[in-house]
Design brief:
single chain; about 1000 residues; mainly beta; Immunoglobulin-like; Ferric Hydroxamate Uptake Protein, Chain A, domain 1; Maltoporin, Chain A; 5-stranded mixed sheet; about 5% helix; globular
Length: about 1000
């Protein structure tokens, strides 16, 4: 027994010694700095080569690797923009101190911009291309990825009137480039054209690249007239550690501004002072309080990424929910995305794959008009003495004070208005290096978007008897893209650099859908979930459609630069589109641009304060094919039923809307751009200045024609020309660059002057009618007549030019007076002279963003200003008119109008025009990054608070001066705009 015990003790001691010997470790410490400046490199990586053991440097550039086994190892230090450095060392139990001094990599630090079908160094660009990186974007609560780009690039106007979480942003680059065609730019996501940007989570975006001039957009041919926005999403990096990123926030949203309406007591006093007959509802209701609520938003984003020598991956999942500030309006969205890259065949083949899916649910409220179901109009109109509910609280209080007078809370809560959408994006790209200079690429993309909407009005929602109504609708869109490309890159004699590309593109888009509706539901409980319960269904209540279009293209581009001093780029694309007439299916879109890097010339070699000075000139043609399908053809659609006069039997009636036009073609955009890139004082001040002249010809629109000789009174054709001339300045300033305090500032300034050059075709066949030229129609109770338009399309003026009677005072009996053409004054609106009294287009726009770091704190402040331009305040026109009292409610300023003696119905005039200038504090975020060096499982942890739409400085009396500049009807601020919100959010960014 004793012998066995001694044996066990000996074996145990031997095992302990062996394990102790094999487990001997040491700690490696050190610092990584910039060899040039001696400054510490924060966030640099150091790893033990051949393992996953590593660490990142802290704010002092220091790192620590504990528990490293003794023996010989090799350390590898790396940092973006610097050359890697390897150091073999021997680790002992005493540890080791290993410092690194990294050298800038001139190739890596050269900033790249994405252009059509490729990338190039920022210093090599010859067109107007802007790059905005992820760290420069607006943060906080973003319901649309384009919101992150507001105010970040000169010449790019991004607007959204109101704060509806289900509403989108209007994007316009360098002014209006069309009338009835689409005015939004072409979006290209990871090389796939036509992708909806709302299918991308803001946290997944790496950068935006904006092609603004025709010299850059001509490579996209018939789709480039409105500019091109290239969106690159984040991907994994080769030879990088696996990491997990968590981004989340929670926010509270508040109505930023409310209309100052009369209270119930104000109205009662008005009634008593004027001895009026009035039915007092007995309540004190603030109807804005009744329909508004505190909104809430949450977003959760989780991403995993990494890579080795041959492959990379990044997968992300984002779930967000936005509860709007109007009852029953909200949006819920889930986006999953995965980006993969794999090298093969001795690194000559690179396969890239993207797969993205989006699931979205929307709840809407109707607010876009002045009808019986429009929640905002009914809330602003509703008498404040009326209660929300009946005395017992079981039903909504309804009373017929006048025609179409309804309870807005009932409208918001009882009407079903929902949507469910699913979106899929699949993309695979193969790049094969045929030789060192020649690469072949194949890009395949597939997009599918489908949505289903549900709408139901119960029989109980209106004050008068309502029949009830239900509708279901389904829509599907799919796009197939195939692009093949050859790319040739070669440098001769170290000075002649050539890049050539040639390619083929095929895209087919199709959409289909169906709709069914009816009235008189058997039960309100079923809503639109079972349309079989609708008792009143007519044949025309059921419809469906299916359509498609194709775009086939051949394109090429040649880029040459000599000694990075002289540059020449030439592009040619030939597009064939099925949307146009037989005589104009195909079109050519050429462009050419040159650049001169003046700072490389000998006469500037001794000018130390100039780092960059480059002159660029470009000219090109691009097009716009964004019109509905089949506009060049005659087609008929069923619209009703009737009796066949020959047979007496039931028949389907068809409707034909327009004539065929074999000469219908794309809108053509020609543009001259002159730009200067500059960088001085060691590039502490850098940027670009652009001057452009853009002209759009052959505007596509429906024109009124005579019958006969035409079969129908409308033909889609090309007629008219508009011009946009402007100047843009993008400026980057490194104001402070200290060890503990950095301040970077960017300024984006743009001024655009738009003019309608012509409203007729060159041969005079087609011309805009007077009816089509009248735009900006007003809405509201009390408006009489059919001349309530405010803007006019006319030659030598811009879109959004106000053309209306000019206010000349108020008569003694309270009627508006107007100027006449003869120089007199009239009270008769029909005798008043319509004059140019202002424009909705601003004088200039300005974006100013500031980025601060102070020790562990970071502060981002973004502001945006629009100076000049006017707004027609339709809200004030309707709700400050004394005629609405006391049946309806009114703005508090109605008392001022009464004091002035106003005693007439709402009347269109310049009296309601106001200055639209404003300065917005768009985004303010304050973050703190914790020191997590001692936690080997956590590499970054940051908390932040952020506010969007913090404050607006303006003289405008309405809710918000920001309007959309999209389309032909802008410049009118109607009461039917979802209120702007102010958000306050708390968030966390963590990397593991």
């Amino acid at each position: 027994m004793a012998k066995n015990l001694r044996l066990l003790l000996f074996l145990g001691l031997f095992t302990f010694v062996a394990v102790s010997a094999s487990a001997q470790t040491g700690t490696i410490k050190g610092k990584i700095t910039d060899k040039n400046t001696g400054e510490p490199l924060i966030g640099a990586s150091v790893i033990v080569q051949g393992t996953t053991i590593g660490a990142s440097t802290n704010l002092d550039g220091g790192y620590e690797l504990p528990g490293i086994s003794t023996g010989s190892i090799t350390l590898e230090a790396s940092f973006i923009g610097f050359q890697k450095e390897l150091k073999p060392i021997t680790v002992t139990t005493d540890g080791a101190t290993v410092n690194f001094e990294l050298t800038e990599d001139s190739e890596m630090i050269e900033e790249l911009v994405v252009i059509g079908y490729g990338t190039q160094k920022k210093t090599d660009k010859t067109g107007a291309v802007a790059n905005v990186k992820a760290e420069e974007l607006n943060g906080g609560v973003l319901t649309d990825p384009m919101q992150a780009l507001q105010g970040k690039s000169a010449g790019v106007t991004i607007t959204k009137p109101g704060g509806d979480p289900n509403g989108g942003f209007a994007v316009k680059i360098r002014g209006q480039s069309g009338f009835f065609s689409g005015t939004n730019p072409l979006y290209v996501v990871d090389g796939v054209p036509g992708v909806d940007p709302t299918t991308i989570s803001p946290e997944d975006i790496a950068s935006y690249n904006i092609l603004k001039d025709a010299g850059s957009t001509a490579i996209y041919g018939a789709r480039g007239a409105n500019g091109v926005i290239l969106i690159e999403t984040k991907s994994g990096k080769y030879n990088s550690e696996n990491k997990i990123e968590l981004n989340l926030y929670n926010s509270f949203d508040y109505v930023a501004n409310r209309l100052d309406m009369l209270s119930a007591d104000d109205l009662r006093k008005y009634v008593a002072d004027n001895n009026l007959n009035f039915l007092d509802g007995g309540a004190n209701t603030d109807w804005q309080d009744a329909i508004y609520r505190r909104g809430m938003s949450q977003s959760y984003n989780l991403a995993a990424s990494g890579g080795d020598d041959n492959s990379t991956y990044r997968a992300s999942l984002t779930h967000s929910k936005h509860q709007g500030v109007i009852l029953n309006s909200d949006k819920e969205r889930t986006i999953a995305r995965i980006n993969l890259q794999q090298k093969g065949i001795n690194d000559r083949l690179t396969l890239s794959t993207t797969l993205s899916g989006t699931i979205e649910k929307n709840n809407y409220v109707k607010y876009d008009g002045n009808g019986p179901q429009d929640v905002l109009y009914q809330a602003f109109s509703r008498n404040p003495t009326d209660p929300v509910y009946t005395e017992d609280g079981k039903d909504y209080y309804e009373i017929e004070r006048d025609f179409q007078y309804n309870n807005p809370v009932s409208l918001a809560e009882e009407v079903q208005n929902d949507r469910a959408a699913k979106r899929l994006l699949a993309n695979m790209k193969a790049d094969f290096e045929v030789t060192k200079s020649l690469t072949a690429s194949l890009n395949l993309g597939y997009t599918r978007n489908d949505d289903e909407s549900f709408y139901f009005e119960p029989t109980t929602i209106l004050s008068s008897k309502h029949e009830g109504y239900g509708k279901r609708e389904y829509n599907n869109f799919e796009s197939k893209v195939l692009e093949a490309l050859l790319r040739y890159d070669k440098t001769f004699n170290e000075k002649h650099n050539i890049n050539l590309i040639g390619g083929y593109s095929f895209q087919e888009d199709g959409k289909d859908g169906l709709k069914a509706q009816g009235k008189s539901p058997y039960s309100n409980f079923l809503q639109s979930d079972n349309l079989g319960s609708l008792l009143n269904v007519n044949p025309q209540d059921i419809s469906s459609y299916k359509e498609s279009n194709r775009l086939i293209s051949f394109f090429g581009r040649a880029v040459y630069n000599y000694d990075t001093k002289y540059y020449l780029t030439a592009t040619l694309r030939r597009d064939g589109s099925s949307r146009f007439g037989n005589n104009h299916k195909w079109g050519w879109f050429p462009s050419a641009s040159v650049g001169w890097n003046i700072s490389r010339e000998a006469f500037l070699e001794d000018v130390d304060f100039i780092e960059t000075l480059k002159l660029r000139v470009s000219y090109g043609l691009s097009g716009n094919q964004e019109i509905d399908n089949y506009r060049s053809q005659i087609y008929a659609t069923p619209y009703s039923t009737g009796i066949d006069p020959e047979t007496g039997q039931d028949a389907i009636l068809f409707d034909v809307r327009h004539n065929a036009n074999p000469n219908l073609k794309w809108e053509e955009n020609s543009e001259l751009n002159i730009g200067i890139d500059f960088g001085i004082l060691n590039n502490r001040i850098s940027g670009s200045l652009e001057v452009y002249d853009k002209r759009t010809y052959d505007l596509v629109a429906p024109f009124a024609v005579d019958v006969p000789p035409n079969i129908f009174p409308t033909t889609w054709a090309n007629a008219g020309e508009i011009s946009n001339k402007g100047v843009e300045l993008n400026l980057q300033l490194i104001v402070m660059d200290k060890k503990r305090f950095d301040w970077k500032s960017t300024i984006a300034f743009s001024k655009n002057i738009q003019k309608i050059e012509s409203l007729k075709s060159t041969d005079g066949t087609f011309e805009w009618s007077d009816a089509d030229r009248k735009r900006g129609w007003l809405q509201g109770r009390g408006l009489v007549g059919n001349e309530n338009w405010t803007t006019l399309l006319q030659e030598n003026e811009g879109v959004g030019t106000f053309y209306m009677p000019e206010f000349a005072g108020i008569s003694d009996d309270g009627v508006f007076l107007f100027h006449t053409a003869a120089g007199g004054v009239t009270r008769n609106l029909d005798d008043a002279e319509r004059r140019v009294v202002g424009s909705a287009e601003p004088d200039f726009e300005l974006g100013w963003s500031n980025y601060f770091t102070f020790f562990n704190f970071d502060i981002n402040l973004s502001m945006r200003a629009v100076i000049g331009g006017m707004i027609m305040n339709n809200t004030r026109m309707i709700f400050s008119n004394p005629k609405v009292l006391p049946t309806y409610n009114a703005l508090s300023e109605v008392m001022d109008e009464i004091d002035k003696g106003l005693n007439t119905q709402p009347t269109i005039s310049s009296y309601y025009l106001e200055d639209a200038s404003y300065l917005k504090i768009d985004n303010l975020s304050i973050g703190y990054t914790f020191d997590v060096d001692k936690l080997n499982w956590l590499s970054k942890f940051r908390i932040y608070v952020v506010s969007n739409n913090l404050y607006t400085f303006t003289k405008y009396s309405g809710l918000d001066p920001e309007i959309s500049y999209d389309g032909l009807d802008f410049g009118v601020d109607k009461f039917n705009v979802y209120p702007k919100t102010r958000t306050f959010a708390f968030g966390i960014n963590a990397t593991f």
